[in-house]
Write a structure and sequence with these properties.
The chain is of the alpha+beta class. Helices cover 57% and strands 10% of the residues. It is globular, with a radius of gyration of 25 Å.
């Protein structure tokens, strides 16, 4: 088993060459240095993208043929063309000798050795920009890169994250996380159960396969609300390539498949509670509490901007209530223009908030992008699910801090009552939008008029 794992590690230096040279496909971007971390755009997206130089084994060489033979020994079949390729790794479909179909994630060669140089280069470039533009406040990008990149380069850490989130969210029967094959995995090569489906933002795929778009959007919201507010362990790269959907032929249920578990954010209890209470205040349009908890999260006097960044809504909509009306085209234009106008303030805000907030902002933005593609953005159900998770999280925290049996019972009663009120409101919204609800409303209206 150890010998097999060692051979798989050697594939990391070969399979990229097999693909590049064997298929005559070259991407000039793969031969450059790291792309400096992209920062704030219209709604404060924060992402890190690292491209390193890619040196491959020459096609047709003796070493190439030797490593190719190792692939044949370990696999019945191994697809040279990757299913997906990114800056750090690429994924190939393969079949093991025992017949299992697997996804093989292989780190690009030289990434480990090159990463420290890339971060140093990023730091130098940002210092130069800082000298030219004194107001430039993005040095925290280097800190985040130093913290996150080593974790992303350790595929065993990614495997552990996958198993942890699968166990943590095991009650969600719609969630599927690929099983990790530890006996064939190393820090640079990860073997997983092969899963496929359509991308979560592909509305046409869902309609073609009879998948309910609103159900997918609702379940995705449940998934991330549970991770953020209840567990404080958050998958921070939900771009459409990492979130797939598929209808199960046997049960007819739609599954959400969560991939790429290299980047997670662990939220401290104090941060998580403040974040819960802030979202509760935003949903209730309680401006005093919005100001209070925004300040506690580092926003200071920029709390109105912070609220707009979190919700991707205008300040007017935040004051009115973000669940009252969906985003309009004119509001979207207003948000984009204001984002450009307030870029210095956004930069200052991002420099002041806790580091835990940075990846959450990126995650929020990616989720909103999916909702926009599915035309389900700002639906009432997403805010109701968030409210449920916030209530449960705060109640659990309060019970754990209380030493009084009476007080714990009181907290549990208040929690049950609040959840019941949300369920009742959700039922009202469903009746209001359904044929049955319309029929009941018409019937009650006729009964009312017949009494006069």
């Amino acid at each position: 088993m150890a010998r097999r794992a060692l051979k798989l590690a050697s594939l990391a230096a070969a399979t990229s060459g097999i693909y590049l040279y064997g298929n005559k496909f070259l991407d000039p971007n793969d031969f450059g240095v790291v792309r400096v971390g992209r920062a704030v755009a219209t709604t404060a997206v924060i992402t890190y993208d690292y491209l390193t130089s890619l040196r491959s084994v020459p096609y047709g060489s003796e070493e190439y043929e030797f490593l190719k033979s190792q692939i044949k020994e370990l696999f019945v079949s191994f697809e040279d063309t990757p299913l997906g390729a990114a800056s750090l790794a690429q994924v190939h479909k393969a079949v093991l000798q025992d017949g299992r179909t697997v996804a093989v994630k292989i780190q690009h060669p030289k990434v480990q050795a090159q990463s420290s140089k890339d971060i140093l280069l990023m730091e130098v470039l940002l210092l130069v920009v800082k000298q030219i533009f004194p107001d430039f406040e993005f040095m925290w990008l280097v800190e985040e890169a130093k913290k996150n990149l080593p974790l992303e380069l350790d595929f065993l850490n990614e495997g552990r994250n996958a198993e942890k989130v699968a166990h943590m969210l095991k009650n969600f029967d719609f969630l599927k996380v690929p099983r990790i094959y530890w006996e064939l995995s190393t820090r640079r090569v990860l073997l997983m159960e092969f899963m496929e489906g359509g991308q979560v933002n592909d509305r046409a795929y869902m309609e073609k396969n009879g998948i309910n778009v609103n159900e997918i959007s609702r379940n995705l919201g449940k998934l991330y609300s549970e991770m953020i507010f209840v567990n404080g362990f958050v998958h921070c790269d939900p771009h459409p390539g990492n979130v797939l959907v598929k209808k199960c032929p046997a049960s007819g249920k739609a599954h959400i498949i969560l991939l790429d578990h290299g980047l997670y954010q662990v939220l401290s209890e104090s941060f998580r509670m403040d974040y819960c209470r802030l979202w509760q205040a935003l949903i209730k349009a309680d401006m005093k509490r919005v100001q209070k908890y925004s300040r506690r999260l580092g926003a200071g006097d920029l709390y109105p901007l912070f609220a707009c960044m979190l919700t991707a809504r205008s300040w007017e909509s935040v004051n009115r209530g973000i669940d009252r009306s969906p985003v309009s085209a004119s509001e979207d234009v207003e948000i984009r223009s204001n984002a450009a106008a307030y870029l210095p303030q956004i930069t200052q805000l991002l420099n002041n908030v806790p580091r835990q907030m940075l990846l959450l902002l990126k995650t929020n933005d990616l989720l909103r992008g999916i909702e926009s593609a599915l035309h389900t953005r700002a639906s009432a159900s997403s805010f109701l699910n968030m409210s449920r998770c916030c209530i449960r999280a705060v109640s659990t925290y309060q019970r754990n801090k209380s030493h009084s049996l009476y007080r714990r019972a009181q907290i549990s009663f208040t929690e049950a009552l609040s959840l019941w009120q949300i369920n009742l409101y959700e039922l009202f919204l469903w009746l209001k939008g359904s044929r049955l609800g319309n029929w009941v409303i018409v019937l009650l209206s006729r009964m009312h008029h017949s009494t006069y």
